[in-house]
């Protein structure tokens, strides 16, 4: 898990540099076989050292590391459990994602890039207290059908990827879409792409 822990530090710095988290909020993980390396609780993501990142088993028990794993460890484990293709997760409190997650039930298709997440919108998972099995279940529901991004009501966003690079890229695209949507709402009522327009893009992407 040495490479996985180093990657958590690298991408931890990136999410802070982009302003996707403040303080010690947000958490990232990488899965390797049965084990998961995750960012620790209470440490700012741009100050991590590889040895700070605990390694946990599927039950959430720490098998390596001194620090306690992120409070959202149950969510990370639950998402890997139902997404066999995912090997990395990025969870942030990015501003525009949080704005949409506080005011809407979905991020609608204001741009064709929404299709990159495996659906024609991005669902907002129902609110539940952070770190709980209820939140993990709600987020899992919002990702049902093989989706790779969801927003968390009154909280933030989460993306999955085959590695941290992909999960981080998806977080960047999700935040960009949310910013466009929020700014468009400020100008009036955004036009949403219809099913025929989205189907054309899907056909082009598959071709
Ligand atoms: Zn959070």
UniProtKB/TrEMBL annotation:
UniProt protein name: Class II aldolase/adducin family protein
Signal peptide (from-to): none
Keywords tagged on the record: Lyase, Metal-binding
Domain Class II aldolase/adducin N-terminal: 6-182
A Pfam family matched in the record: Aldolase_II
Lineage top rank: taxon: Bacteria
């Amino acid at each position: 898990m040495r490479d996985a822990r180093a990657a958590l530090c690298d991408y931890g710095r990136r999410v802070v540099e982009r302003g996707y988290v403040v303080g010690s909020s947000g958490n990232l993980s990488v899965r390797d076989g049965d084990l998961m390396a995750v960012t620790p609780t209470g440490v700012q993501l741009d100050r991590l050292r590889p040895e700070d990142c605990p390694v946990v088993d599927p039950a959430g028990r720490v098998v390596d590391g001194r620090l306690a794993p992120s409070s959202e460890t149950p969510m990370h484990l639950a998402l890997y459990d139902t997404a066999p293709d995912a090997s990395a997760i990025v969870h942030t409190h990015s501003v525009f994602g949080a704005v949409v997650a506080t005011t809407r039930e979905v991020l609608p298709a204001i741009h064709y890039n929404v299709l990159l997440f495996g659906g024609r919108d991005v669902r907002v998972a129902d609110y539940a207290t952070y770190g709980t099995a209820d939140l993990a279940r709600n987020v899992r529901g919002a990702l049902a059908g093989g989706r790779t991004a969801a927003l968390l009501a009154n909280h933030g966003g989460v993306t999955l990827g085959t590695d941290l690079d992909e999960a981080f890229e998806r977080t960047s695209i999700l935040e960009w879409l949310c910013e466009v949507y929020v700014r468009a709402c400020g100008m009036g009522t955004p036009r949403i792409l219809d099913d025929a327009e989205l189907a054309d893009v899907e056909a082009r992407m598959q071709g």
